[in-house]
Design brief:
- This protein is an alpha+beta fold.
- The protein is built from 9 helices and 14 strands.
- Strands 5, 6, 7, 8, 9, 10, 11, 12, 13 and 14 form a 10-stranded mixed beta sheet that branches. Strands 1-4-2-3 form a 4-stranded antiparallel beta sheet.
- Helix 1 crosses helix 2 and helix 7 packs antiparallel against helix 8.
- The longest helix is centred in the C-terminal third of the chain and has 14 residues.
- It is elongated.
């Protein structure tokens, strides 16, 4: 997801429109209409605004003369239109870039996406996306919808993604995602002390107060399930592992905010005023993104039928943040503070013994009926 991850709202247009010139004769029944309105009727596959732009850019002639959108027609005129690909279609062009390919065969490839790389072209990001790089790496992906992409990660989330190289493989992987047989495990740094392992199960939909964000909603959203496991605890943060059952847009980020432990560095869902030391604040600021990494990916290979698993080590920026947190906490080894907490409060498996009064931060795991 979004994502985080696979969801049916992923935009896609793969019907490549080659630039071409169309010559039409204006029917008599369109006499008296403006040129832009008439062409919108004659070319119903294209929006009126797009046709108007073609006219303004000089791509339309009327009786071999440059045309204006306001030209009135009398019928019988010859109109020549240069059909130009849309931004969406032009976005499906190969761009050479360095890709960290973890695995590749004739059927699938697994890529370790860096933070800052957009997965799929969209408004404001028509070029320089992972899709563009995949098309350059494997030109045959131009024949596969979405260039083989079956799930996605947010721009500022790093980690593993699987890409299908054939249409049958893509269909196979999509069915696995829908049946929840693809296993996706993320590593993250959350604000505050997450007290124990647990499951967050809610409905997620568009934030009714901000359509650019996602939120936990009471009605109309889609089921979202995240399993949270605590790996380490520090003075004011926790290192956690999140396993997805579903793949909703921004799922982990929204769920951790709902649990009152938003991800460190999350500019959309986080808490910039979270109380911590100056050294940690600097490390989070230097991260310049949410502390979220798609660490492990497992799926059934579409051809062999065997379960394959891959891991991507933490990127340097998250490793640095963890190093600062561990140093501040006086941790001699990665699990030393975990052992200290278990000695003081008991095993994380003893959820029935948990009392929110033992902690400075209240944790709420919400389940919608």
């Amino acid at each position: 997801m979004h994502t985080a991850d696979y969801n049916e709202d992923l935009p896609f247009e793969n019907d490549l429109e080659p630039a071409q010139t169309v010559v039409l004769t204006v029917p008599i029944d369109l006499a008296g209409q403006r040129l832009d309105a008439a062409l919108a009727k004659l070319l119903p596959d294209y929006s009126r605004s797009r046709i108007t732009n073609w006219i303004k850019e000089g791509g339309v002639t009327l009786n071999n003369r440059p045309a204006s959108p306001k030209d009135k027609l009398i019928g019988g005129e010859e109109v020549s239109i240069d059909i130009q690909p849309s931004d969406e279609v032009k976005a499906f062009t190969p761009e050479t870039m360095e890709l960290d390919i973890v695995f590749e065969d004739d059927t699938v490839l697994v890529v370790n996406k860096p933070a800052g790389l957009v997965v799929h072209p969209a408004a404001g990001n028509w070029t320089g996306t992972l899709l563009n790089g995949l098309l350059a790496h494997c030109p045959a992906l131009s024949q596969v919808p979405r260039a083989g992409i079956v799930h996605r990660l947010d721009k500022d989330t790093s980690g593993l993604m699987v890409v299908a190289k054939t249409l049958p493989a893509q269909n196979h992987l999509v069915r696995q995602l829908q049946s929840r047989s693809v296993k996706r495990i993320y590593r993250a740094v959350a604000d505050g002390i997450v007290p124990f392992d647990g499951k967050i199960e809610t409905l997620i939909g568009r934030d009714p107060h901000n359509r650019l964000k996602m939120a936990v909603v009471k009605f109309g959203g889609k089921e979202a399930v995240t399993h949270v496991k605590v790996l380490e605890r520090y003075l004011a943060h926790s290192y956690i592992e999140c396993s997805l059952e579903t793949g909703r847009t921004h799922q982990i980020r929204v769920h951790m905010r709902e649990a009152r432990h938003p991800l460190a560095g999350d500019a959309v869902y986080g808490n910039p005023r979270h109380a911590c030391s100056a050294e940690v604040k600097t490390a989070v600021k230097d991260l310049a993104r949410q502390a979220l990494h798609a660490y492990r990916l497992s799926f059934i290979h579409p051809v062999s039928g065997e379960t394959v698993s891959f891991e991507a080590p933490l990127p340097q920026d998250m490793y640095h943040l963890l190093s600062v947190l561990r140093l501040e906490s006086g941790m001699d080894s990665p699990l030393s503070r975990e052992a200290e907490w278990q000695d003081k409060f008991g095993s994380d498996d003893d959820e029935d013994d948990w009392n929110e009064d033992d902690y400075d931060v209240e944790v709420v795991y919400v389940k919608d009926a």
